[in-house]
Description:
The chain is an all-alpha fold. It has a domain at 39-91. The chain has helices at 22-32, 39-52, 57-64, 69-75, 80-91. Helix 2 (39-52) runs antiparallel to helix 3 (57-64) and helix 3 (57-64) packs across helix 4. The longest helix is centred in the middle third of the chain and has 14 residues, at 39-52.
Amino acid sequence: MTGSAGALVFAKRNGTPLRSIRKAFRTACDAAGLKDVSPHVLRHTFASKLAMAGVDPATIQELGGWRSLVMVQRYTHLTPAHKAAAVERIASSEFPNAIPKAVPRRAGERAASGLQ
């Protein structure tokens, strides 16, 4: 059933749908030492990790099954470290021409906009 439309994500060995994954999910979280985790939280984590890996929003939308890019924006959360690294990129040598350098003018010369 892999990849087929309408395929079940969670099914019994005989192919019938599971009514609930609650017990199995809780058991797995307990074994992993995870607290306060739900499938909903994992959707946020999935979207956020994809965004921070540089995956484009349309692909995140398709992979997560969201109907709109607005929902992708709601589900993606960037870490403070990720945002700080993004800002540092423009200050680093990765983008040496990212910040335009001031062009010295001769005395009395006006800028193109008419401002000095």
